[in-house]
Amino acid sequence: MKRNAHSFVGRACRALAVVGIAALVLACLSYVCGARVNRTNSLPKGLYWRVNKAPVRGDIVAFWPDGTEPFRIARERGYILPGVYNRSDGIGYGLMLKRLVAHSGDTVSITPDGVTVNGRLLSNTKPLTHDNVGDPLPVVRLSDYRLAEHEALFVSDHLPRSYDARYFGIQDMRQIVEVVVPVWIW
Question: Which residues pair with 61 in a beta bridge?
Fold first, then answer.
């Protein structure tokens, strides 16, 4: 009787190990092929897919933080995750997903009312002075600034509390790693 129980447990453990390894291999292959999972609130949570195209205004892009003070603050407070990008301080940053709302030639403002691109105020972009626990946020102010070559503004128009250009300012288009599109969101 005991032999059958041990035999069953052994088979079950092997089966679970095979299923686990298969799931890990499938997840890795999916990532290599272009699957991305958004777990943050800056954009709708769900499955996104990498597309092979040059980024244009309105696209959702994955970009690496440049390691400046606003990004260090964000990583320390847990707004963004540590990762493999820009490891100048030894820790690095994970990719961020935001909407590319402006790039070279566009005129942008970041005021107490929100982010304006080419004269149009974007929804859900009013800068906050403090985060959810009362810590001050590094608010950026711009007035009718014309973006130069390679300059970009990354914003979330989905969530009013997103950590985006309102707090880290203008970035470089060359920080963009890929363009993604939603496949299945919830």
Answer: 98, 179
Predicted structure pTM score: 0.85
Tokens, residue 155: 């914003």
Distances (CA, A) of 97 to 25, 70, 81, 94: 24, 16, 12, 10
- DSSP of 62-125: EE-----HHHHHHHHHTSS---SB--TTSS-B--EEEEEEEETT-EEEEETTEEEETTEEPTT-
Question: Of 171, 185, 143, whose CA–CA distance to 61 is shortest?
Answer: 171
- As a whole-number percent, the residues of the chain with pLDDT over 90 amount to 63
Percent of the chain with pLDDT over 70: 93
Q: What is d(CA 134, CA 57) in angstroms, rounded to the nearest whole number?
A: 33
Q: Which residues pair with 50 in a beta bridge?
A: 180
| Spatial CA neighbour of 142 closest among 178, 167, 105 | 167
pLDDT bracket for residue 7 (50, 70, 90): confident
Taking CA atoms, 147 is separated from 100, 125, 142, in Å, by 13, 19, 11
Statement: residue 9 has pLDDT above 90: no
